[in-house]
Amino acid sequence: MSSSKESNTAAAAKQLGSMSLGQSVETEPTAENGTPSKLCSACDKKSNTLKKCTACKCVWYCDKECQNKHWKEHKKECKPIKKELDKRGGKLDLGTELDVGPLGKLPPREECPICMRVLPLHEQLQTYAPCCGKLVCSGCDYQHEIKSGGGGRRTCAFCRTAVPKSDEENLVQLRKRVELKDPTALCNLAMQYGKGRFGIPVDQAKCIGLLLQTADLGFPPAQYQIGAFHSTGVMGLEQNEEEAFKCYKEAAEGGHLPALHNLAFTSWENGDGDAAMRHLRLAASGGYKASMGALTEFFESGLLQHKDLAETLQAFYCARTEMKSEDRDQHIKHLKNTGKYKEEYDL
Question: Mean per-residue pLDDT for 259-288?
Answer without folding.
Answer: 97
